[in-house]
């Protein structure tokens, strides 16, 4: 099965001074708060200068691509690796791909190579595509957006000038794409914006200050049930920290602990009654699937560690004050045992400034999301719809949904129909509807290779609060 975009990936462990960790621990245990700073996403950076960038070099294409596609690769001045694919019969449309994850640790060419293999649908169907590994690991949305823009300018300089450029963000890359569209969507480049349209698929679109709430809930409820992350014999720490900076815990060790408590690596018939009850309680209360418990816990461990150590100065951006957990055999007992945390306003402001969309979109933007996405909840689309509406930009947004139960990749037919509808909107002003996108998909059949249309034209997601409860300060 394809690795999920939001699952944990190989990472490097950053370090902070012991005194800084002690301050963070004391602040968490004391419930210290501070006055919130008024922080907004940064102004759009100036034009990215690529005059000193090294030109990309020929590279092998993934086996999924036909011989008529030329591939290039390189590493930019910031340290990001990238891959470019251009078909011989290029239709003139460049797809700038913002990948999910995010990957932790140092950038690697293998990340861009894997993304090109996964998204071979674009060059197989006449689109040029370019994708960056990003120059650093971890949760930093604005930096990833700038890496994507730098690569776009390298393409223009060294590969060719596209007729149209579409920004495609997938999973966490949907967050990157939403921010990049705000930063560069109005920036003039030869008399036109940097991008012509935006396609966001399976996107984490609620912003970091809301999208990750359920994962602090997961850590808190899991610990109340299992008491092994951390173990009683290990140094105790506030769960919002993810892990202390020098923790030796590995993904394999955590998976073993989860299996010992919940039996997730064993079929139902081989689990003890206690394991099954704890697993049923956790999945009902948090609203996740059994087979996604470990991946979500990984995210709430090492990615939380990255956010707290490297993005919020050791302070807590996550909280669960006021959340009442329901779905257990004894909700009163569970809520009494769950640890509670109050977020630090300065940490929240930092996370908001980097990750939360403002909704001030200016380009045609189409989002596509599986109604049964097990990783990035579809209800985040409801939140994004409200963000855009509040900004007064609803005329620029169309949202479509599919019946899939997947996150990392839906179907070729759905992607091609969504892209075709977006291009028709960009070029001819024909704003699509969920019904027209579904009809376009069916009209395009049969697909080669065979691919199914799975659109749900009448679907509307519920509010995120129905899946991940709102919380107090």
Number of domains: 2
**CA gyration radius, whole angstroms:** 22 Å
Low-confidence stretches: 1-44
By helix and strand content, what is the structural category? alpha/beta
What sequence of helices (H) and strands (E) makes up the elements?
A: HEEEEHHEHEHEHHHHHHHEHEHH
Instruction: Return the CATH class of the largest domain.
Output: Alpha Beta
Kindly estimate the percentage of residues that lie in beta strands according to DSSP.
5-15%
What does this structure look like?
The chain is of the alpha/beta class and 473 residues long. It folds into two domains: 72-207 and 360-466, 3-Layer(aba) Sandwich (Rossmann fold); 212-352, no CATH class. The chain has 15 helices and nine strands. Helix 4 (141-158) packs across helix 5 and helix 7 (213-226) packs antiparallel against helix 9 (273-286). The longest helix is centred in the middle third of the chain and has 19 residues, at 293-311. 51% of the residues are buried. Residues 1-44 have low confidence and may be disordered.
Brief digest:
This protein is 37% helix and 11% strand.
Features:
nine-stranded mixed beta sheet; Rossmann fold; disordered N terminus; 9 strands; alpha/beta; 473 residues
């Amino acid at each position: 099965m394809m690795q999920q975009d939001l699952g944990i990936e190989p990472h490097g462990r950053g370090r902070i001074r012991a005194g800084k960790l002690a301050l963070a621990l004391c602040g968490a245990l004391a419930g210290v708060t501070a006055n919130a700073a008024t922080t907004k996403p940064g102004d759009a950076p100036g034009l990215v200068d690529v005059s000193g960038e090294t030109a990309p070099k020929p590279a092998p294409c993934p086996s999924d691509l036909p011989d008529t596609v030329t591939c290039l690769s390189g590493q930019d001045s910031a340290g990001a690796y990238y891959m470019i694919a251009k078909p011989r019969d290029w239709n003139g449309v460049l797809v700038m791909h913002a990948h999910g994850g995010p990957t932790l640790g140092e950038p690697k060419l293998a990340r861009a190579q894997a993304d090109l293999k996964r998204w071979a649908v674009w060059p197989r169907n006449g689109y040029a595509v370019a994708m960056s590994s990003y120059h650093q690991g971890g949760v930093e949305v604005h930096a990833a957006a700038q890496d994507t823009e730098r690569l776009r300018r390298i393409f223009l300089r060294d590969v060719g000038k596209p007729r149209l450029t579409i920004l495609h963000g997938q999973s966490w890359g949907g967050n990157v794409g939403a921010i990049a569209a705000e930063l560069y969507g109005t920036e003039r480049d030869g008399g036109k914006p940097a991008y012509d349209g935006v396609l966001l698929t399976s996107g984490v679109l609620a912003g970091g200050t809301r999208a990750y709430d359920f994962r602090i809930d997961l850590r808190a409820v899991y610990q109340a049930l299992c008491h092994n992350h951390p173990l009683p014999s290990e140094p105790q720490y506030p769960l919002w920290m993810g892990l202390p900076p020098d923790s030796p815990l590995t993904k394999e060790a955590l998976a073993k602990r989860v299996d010992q408590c919940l039996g997730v690596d064993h079929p139902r018939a081989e689990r003890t009654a206690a394991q099954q009850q704890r697993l049923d309680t956790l999945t009902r209360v948090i609203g996740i699937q059994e087979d996604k418990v470990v991946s979500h816990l990984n995210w709430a461990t090492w990615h939380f560690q990255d956010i707290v150590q490297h993005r919020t100065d050791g302070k807590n951006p996550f909280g669960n004050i006021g959340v009442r957990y329901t779905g257990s055999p004894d909700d009163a007992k569970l809520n009494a045992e769950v640890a509670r945390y109050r977020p630090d306003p300065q940490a929240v402001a930092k996370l908001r400034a980097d990750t939360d969309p403002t909704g001030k979109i200016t380009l045609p933007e189409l989002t596509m999301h599986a109604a049964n996405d097990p990783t990035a909840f579809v209800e985040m689309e409801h939140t994004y719809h409200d963000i855009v509406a509040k900004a007064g930009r609803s005329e620029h947004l169309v949202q479509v949904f599919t019946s899939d139960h997947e996150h990392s990749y839906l179907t070729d037919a759905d992607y091609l129909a969504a892209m075709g509808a977006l291009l028709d909107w960009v070029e001819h002003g024909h704003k699509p509807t969920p019904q027209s996108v579904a009809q376009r998909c069916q009209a395009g059949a049969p697909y080669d290779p065979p691919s199914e249309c799975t659109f749900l034209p009448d679907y509307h997601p519920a509010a995120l609060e129905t899946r991940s409860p709102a919380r107090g300060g």
